[in-house]
Structures are given as structure tokens and as C-alpha cells.
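Q: Protein A?
A:
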Amino acid sequence: MTLITLSKLEHDIDEFLAFKRALGYRYQRGQAMLKSFLRYAQKINHEKHLTLDSNIDFALTLEAWLSRTDGCKPFTVALYLGVIRQFCLYNRRRDPTFFVPEHAQAPKTESVFSPYIFSFKEIQTILNAAGQHQGKSVGAGLLRTLLLILYCTGLRFGEAVRLRLSDVDLKKCVFHIRESKGRTRLVPFGKDLAHEISLYLKERSHLCKSKSTDHDALFIRLNGRPLTVKVASEVVRRLLRQLGYKPPKGRRGPRPYDLRHAFAVHRLTEWYEQGVDIHARLPWLSAYMGHVNLIGTQVYLHATPQLLEIASDRFEKRLMRPRNSNDGKKKR
């Protein structure tokens, strides 16, 4: 049994968050979950007329907190428990007896989500529509350039939106991605994309002069303010709805993030068509996309009819290949 006071719990949570930030993690979602757990514990103490120095049973409080909302999705409960486990493991470093919840305490989760893989034709349709976009906040040049960067480089949506002028090197054709998922990396891109970005930068320069803005953000809205992830997501979703890829309402259908999936699958497809060794190239793709290992990349490698057909053709050709006259002979 782990007993802890509310004042100690609050201090330990703040210390743990400082530790995570020192490692380079933004940890905003984790902070929100830990603060929610703290508020729940404070509420229980208040209802029992206890003080901040009164001990609470950490395990019982956690169990009640995890089951506080009827109908909460298993994935959400597992996510909450994962954050609490990290906090408990951190505390166990200095207190070997500190309670750590078992993985089994979280409900079993199976992801049934399947990303939408845009075809090359659909990507072209989206880019053409973006080039004709007439929005009150986001111009056509900005939207088209953002979508090109997402599809051509596979950057995470937030990484692309938050790019700054100082992060873009058009001479070397490199993006400098700063502190994303706790890591910083360089992402090279092609000359065609560099040309498209340079065209947008001219448009951006005229906009900044008319709006008297000096923001270093790469993407500037028509009102002179930097583009935000929320605004960008809404604009891209609206575009997908207009093209009929998403229903008029609801969360079903392709998401802005699916451009990253399309990048990974299309790159894999092109490698298959070129006949290269996929296993040798996967670490390249993993590093390029900013993953620590191949496990993170596997999420993006979904089979498409085209990919399956190419793989089947390669397998068939391998089976039909004439055997070498020396095959099967015993070595002497």
C-alpha cells in the first residue's frame, strides 16, 4: 500500500513534469492527465473533509479515477494508465515500495482504425483544388505549399505547420525540424519542392509588407498572423469534404495526417517498382520520418492493391526464374 499526501503528490507531479521537459519532451497531454488525477484526488479529499496533509491510498484513488466516467473508451483508459505508470516508475527510483499499476489493469485494446491512403490521382486532385482555394484566412499559395511539403516529405502535420523561415534551407534543400517527439533532425527534399517553396515565399513577402508583420513563421495567414495547427487542420478537412473524400459531417474519412501515411506507402511502392531491397531501405525511411526504430514506421506501411500487385509480381517472377545448372548439386 502506498500512502501519500496531496501536497506531496502535487510536488512529485511537478517534479516529474520538470524531469520530462528536461529530456526534451513537451508532454502537454501527459501533464493534462496528471493534473486531472490530482484534481480528482483533491475533490475526494474535500468531500471527506480531509486536509492536504492527510494520507490517501494511491492505488485506490487511481482505480476510482480510471473508472470515474462510464462509457470511457478502453484506449483512453489505457492511455491514462500509461501516463500514471511512468509517474509511478519515476517515483520508485527513490522509493522502491512506491505502487506501480500493472499493465493488466488497463482494458485490452485493439485498434480498428485504418488510415486512408490517397492515390496519386487523388493527391493531384487535392493539390489542384488547393491551388484554387479562396479562403478568408488561408490563401491558395499557403495551402498548396503546405500540402506539398506534407506529401513530399512525410513530415508530421504539426512539424510542417510550425516550420520557421530559419528552418528552411532552399540552397541545401533541407528542413531543420526542431524538438519534435523529443528529437531534432534534418529532412532533405527535392529541388522541385524547393522551387514551389520559393514561389510561396514571394507571395509571403508581399503579404508581410502589406500587413506589417515580422513573424519568422514560414506560413502566414491572410491577416498577417502565423498559421496554427488548429486552423490548418480545419482548412484541410474542409477541402477534403468539398472534394467528397470526407462526409459532410463527422470524423469519418481521410484526415490531414493521412498525407504522411500516403508518403510512406508511395515511397515503399516506388522502391518495390525499382526492385530494391525493401528490408535494407526501411531503416532509411524510419530515420527520415523521425522514428526511433522500425516499430514506429510499421504503422504507416499499409498494403494497397497496387502494392500487393507489385509484391505478387515480384514473388511470381522469383518462382518462375530458371534454376541455375549448378543448383541442387552437392558441393564437392
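Q: Protein B?
A:
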Amino acid sequence: MTCASLETIAGWVLGELPEAQAIDFEEHYFVCSTCFARAERLLELERTLRSALPPVLTAERTRELVARVPALTEVHLYPGERGVIQLGEAAPLGVWYLHCDLQGVSSVDLEAHSARGETLFRFADVPFDAQRGLVAMPCHLHYRALGTGPEFHARLSSVEAGGPRVLAEYVLDHALS
């Protein structure tokens, strides 16, 4: 077998190759350092993308994350509160649980600003758990690279016929080591 195309390697990584083609590739993969290296890079990319977290979590994704990361840092905040999340090499990931009354709300927007008022991000129609009254927002140690300082001001708003209505505001402080 000659070296596999990138499409074939990607199909193998994703488990989408027909069985006979997968067997042929695997026989070649173990003796060809070029194909082995290409497949390893694609496997690493696939693992990275699979573990990447969106900016706001669904209830199902939150349960998966809590089950997968036993030492997950979790901080619950209620309207008007300030919280601190501690992240470091031993605990690089955490979740903010932004609680507020979400009964009857059909859509929630999330925005965050730096302590100086600069918009950091704004997401429309984020997942929320109306029954538990919360929005789950993951936080990564990598956020320190933003260079905006440790404090975010977060706001949840509902979108209604008369325009947006602020549901709650929070101060999210980060102790990043």
C-alpha cells in the first residue's frame, strides 16, 4: 500500500472507514512512520476538539464535565454577588453557575465586560436550565492569556418583545496561578 490520503487517515481517525479499508490502513500505519505521524497528529486534534468546551454549557455537557473532571472547581453565584474561582496547573478548569429566576424566559443572552468596561464577549441565546435557574459557564486557566485582568462583569438578559431585560449581574474574579 502506498501512503494513505489525508481523507483516508481522517476517515480512520473518525471511525468512518469501511472495515476492509480500515484493516488495510492499519497494516500500513504500523510500518510507515509518515502515515503514523499524520494519524497521530489527527488523533491529537480530534481529542482536542472533542474536549473543547463551548463558552456556555448545556445541562448535559455540564454533567459530562463534572463526571469527567472529579476535581472540577465549581462556583455558584446569585444576582449581585461577587465570586472567586481558583484555577492553576492542578485545577485548570472550573465552572461558574450563574443563578437567577429563569421561569418563563424563552431566550437568555450572556455578556461579559472587563473591570474597565471593555466588552470581552457577548453570546446570544445561550443554553440555560430554567428549572434549576442557572447558566453554566466554563472557565479555563488559559483565560489568563486574554490580558484583561482577573475580574469580569457578567450580565444575563432575556430577549422580550419590548427589548432586552437584564435578569442578573455578577462579578467573576479569577485567581489564576
